[in-house]
Amino acid sequence: MNRNIARILLDLEAVSLRIDPPFTWTSGRLAPIYCDNRLIISDPASRKRVTAGFKTLIEEKGFHPDVIAGTATAGIPHAAWLSDLMDLPMVYVRGAAKGHGKQNRIEGRLEAGKRVILIEDLISTGGSSVSAAEGLKEAGADVLGVLAIFTYGLEVAQKAFLEANIPLYTLTSFDVLAKEAAEGGRLSESDLDTLAQWQRDPALWSENRKKESQK
User: Fold this and answer.
1) Torsion angle of the four alpha carbons 35, 92, 4, 1, in this order, in degrees rounded to the nearest 10
2) First to last CA, the chain
C-alpha cells in the first residue's frame, strides 16, 4: 500500500477524519471518516501521482490490459488519464443501462474477449464496483481486476469481491491512512481505537453514536 497516496488524500482533505461530531453518510449512518476523492481531479500534481500509481500497480501485478474501464462517474477521469498514459482504449460503465437510445450500460467500444482493468475511486461496500465488473463480464470482457484509489477495508466489501471472484487492488487503504494520520499528529491513540471500532462494525458504531447523542 502506498503511504504517499494516503498523504495526498489527507493533505487534499479528500479523506477527512472527524471523531466528534462524526460525519453523516448518504445512507444516514454516522461515521468518523468521509471520502471525497473527486477533490483529486482539481489538483494536477496529485492526479498525476495517482495515475502513475495505477500504472505501477498494473505493472507490478503483471496485468496486460487491452482496455481501461472507468466506473460512472467517479472512476471516469482516472480511467481517462490512465488510458492516455498507457496509450490504451477506454470505456466506462454506467450504474444501469440507459432508458433511451441504444440503452447502453457500457459506453465506448468494447469487443468480446478483451482484457479489461476497471478503475474506481473508492471502495465502501463494494456493491457498485462488483456490479460494474459483472456488467463488463456480461459484455464478454475478461475482467483482470478492479483497481481503486482507496478502500475503507470493510468486511462486507471483501466478501463481495471474494464471492464474485473479482480481484481488488487499491493504491492505499483505511489502515495505511489512519497510521499516516497518527504519525503526522492528526490523530491520537484514542482516535485510532475509535476508528478501529467503526471499521469492525460500522452499523453498530453508528447506532451507538446516535443513541449517545439522544441522551
Assistant:
1) 90
2) 41
Q: Tens-of-pLDDT digits for all 215 residues of the chain?
A: 689 999 999 999 999 999 999 999 989 999 999 999 999 999 999 999 999 999 999 999 999 999 999 999 999 999 999 999 999 999 999 987 655 556 689 999 999 999 999 999 999 999 999 999 999 999 999 999 999 999 999 999 999 999 999 999 999 999 999 999 999 999 999 999 999 999 999 999 999 999 988 76
What SS3 state is found at 103? Answer: coil
Cα–Cα distance for residue pair 197/199, rounded to 1 Å: 6
**What's the CA gap between 134 and 140, in Å, rounded?**
10
For strands 30-31 and 168-173, give the pairing. Answer: unpaired
Does an H or E element contain 84, and which? helix 76-86
Q: How far is the C-alpha of 171 from the C-alpha of 109, rounded, in Å?
A: 27
CB count in 10 Å sphere of residue 23: 14
**What's the per-residue H, E or C state across 157-169?**
HHHHHHHHCCCEE
185 membership: H or E segment, kind and range: none
Q: Measure Cα distances from 155 to 98, 125, 151, 161 in Å.
A: 31, 8, 11, 10
